[in-house]
Amino acid sequence: MSSPTHSTTLDSVQTRVIDVVDTLVNELRQSDGHRRTDASDSLERDLGISSLERVELLVRLEQAFGVRLGETAMVDANTPRDLAIAILSAKPTVAYTSAEIQAPTTETSAAPTSVNTIIDALEWHVNHTPDRVHIYLRDDDGNDRSLTYGELWQSSVAIANGLTTRGLRLHETVAIMLRTEMTFFSSFFGILLAGGVPVPLYPPVRADRIEEYAERQIGILQNADTRMMITFAEVERVAALLVGQAPSLSNVVTAEILSEQSDGARIRHDHVRQSANNPALIQYTSGSTGNPNGVLLSHENLLANIRAIQQGLGIRPDDVGVSWLPLYHDMGLIGAWLGTLYMGIPLVLMSPLTFLVRPARWLQAFHDYRATISPAPNFAYDLCSRRIDDDELKGLDLSSVRILLNGSEAVLPETLNRFAARFAPYGLKPESLCPVYGLAECAVGLAATPAGRGPKIDQIDRQMFQESGLAVQADEHYESPLKIVSSGRVLPDHELRAVDSTGIPVADRNQGHIQFRGPSATAGYYRNPEATRELIGRDGWLNTGDLGYFADGDLFLTGRQKDLIIKGGRNLHPHEAEEIAGAVDGVRAGCVAAFGIPDINRGTERFVVIAETRLSSTHDRELLQANVTQRIARALGIPPDVVVLTPPGAVFKTSSGKIRRAATRKAFLSGDLTKSRPTVLTQWTRLVFRSMVARLRQWGRTFFRIGYTAYVAVLLFVTSPVVWSLLIVGPSGNWVNRLVGGWTRIILTMSGCPVDVVGLDNLRQSGPAVYVANHASYLDAVLMMSVLPVKLRFAAKGRLTRYPILGTAIRKGHHIRIEKSDFTKLIAGAGAVVETIREGESLFVFPEGTFVDSPGLLPFRLGAFRAAVETSRPIIPIAISGTRHILTAKTKLLRPGRITVTISPPLVPSGKNWQEIVRLRDTARAVIEQAAREQK
What's the pLDDT at 827? Predict the structure, then answer.
């Protein structure tokens, strides 16, 4: 929050005012494609902001700018420009630092510091430097293709139009199964522009693991409730097999087809406006210690992390980035691509395969573009140190390199030393090596080595640390110290700490469980409340699952909590054993897994090492086994109990190359580790069979729903004439509610849809009140007539009166019709709401105004809460669960289900001001959201 100063220009304040106005308008319209507001737009005529919403707008502006706006702004300000002028002349409510106000943006500015969403960041660059190159994509043959900000915007809008044409709705998830190619970027932003949520997935790479790949992706698609998938032509056959096994997935399409299907010959320039707290993407964790979880990140999370990284590393406008990291991985997606997009620095990009085939191409990119910064995991630096021939390095100049980020997996001191020594002759500065730490639950970054400092390596007493967790520095005579690399210091605006098993912070140099909190922290795992509860602890601290200690402000990571091996009273960290075994001749480097398994007889764990090798003779394998055992025993002081040598491909890995120790451990215990892998043909046959079975089940469910819908239609056809006749000839008033409610109960009972009502006692002695409920289905209104007292009037949409039975019930029941298409009638309807309550009658309102098929609540409108405050009547929150399952917004097919109606205690107004209206709304929404029990 910041207040304007005399140096602040009208244009800069005006831009921020428009951002606040757009956010409010989007909430009122449920983000239905509102164009960017103009400074001269009329608040009432052009934007539909009535006097009631104008109050909320002024409150938000006061909070955003830290000023107090008087009655003049409320009455006289008619446009965003008027509001900006009023803000410039307003007095601040508190003292604020002038540094928080951004100067007007110029053509030379690199980063849009005042934007609220990643879409706004792209649009900012498009408006200021549309012809500036954003990405240089290097092909396998060495040729480069460029992508400007303007080109990215145009191609993204085309994708958005294609998605909208195919029926994508607000906040529906869309999977992106693409390689490192230009269409990835336009697909990502196209989904956001259309109001969807991107879910990046990695494409299939190895044909011999297609079955394992498919099973993993099906789990993600099911969890994400994915509506569509954007992929490339070569893998459409694989994607088609996933459709039947992911019921929500209805469309698999290429980006090219979406662009061609963009409705209209001219690309539309309008799009769904997003707010800072809207979902920006769901990224699935690597699953190195179990099944992947979907981390839901908002625009606010993303921008907060990118800005913290920019500040923490001191990234400059003249920097140039290089990356080969996959775009479905947080370090490649957010750290490399979205970060450089926001900061306005060019990104040289190549595919992971290009790097793996010839690692020298990564270093050559620094030379060709005088690049300065790049992220990569530890194994990449090892690969460059070991596999690049001197001939490939002739003429190489790395003197431009400022920051080489090393993260995503354990950073090993030997790797840092080897890389620095190997490439020092080519101009690489040792202080450019920058170990970092982050995780998907914090977008990407959490701690970093300060730029220019270089790595810090702590050498500690190995035995003391393994036995007590105390990191005592070893003296120079200690034979085999444990070397741990610092991950740097926590990024700005974030917090890190180490705690014991009870959650109490531990002192420096004591190993503990690492926790964090800050603006980049996810709100939780997507549609996984149990995992979310394990993630988020007390006071907003999130559990990383990592172990480590702090010393002099630096974080030293020691391993994953779930991977810790407890052997003979000592705590062993598997990555060290894996590094030692991987350095033995005959073992495939990076293809070793170490873990512990229970040993009931000894009351401890057995220390197991799985190592891949290409050696085949019995004698050679026995020697290798003994050599691995001796090397680990000599280095760690404890030998492994079991060393298993396997053929290549046996050790499980994530898509980003991390060792999946839990999966490898499970395969070892089941005896599947050494079994031969099924042939590609066998795997494809199984996949096709499972897909066919899934499709048959899906068709069966559809046929059942058709039959069930027909049955309900017959019930309605037989009974509705009688009900309609009774409505016509019967009296007006409360009798209508009694008739419709009774009819509804009969239909629901005969349809196998039982209704459970919880909290009826909360209605006793409540007197006249305002009832509010969430809106999930067309069934909700008649359901409420069957549950609530008959002396109740409903606020109904005017268009509902056109339906035969419902229209008759609204008219004869004296319910209030709200004509939202006519502003004059809308105001009249709002007045009728207040008058009804003043006359001592109770009122029922759906404050969402409408409903969608996606679970969760839409923003609540303020009318009902204003009426309650003005008449001093209580608000009674009601949560409806189950009706969305029976009849969703996007289908006419019914299915049976149980309905639960939860009536919460009344909320009594305690004041007459605007803040009380907002408080009642927010409290009622929170109560309903908690009771509704719908998965998000």
Answer: 36
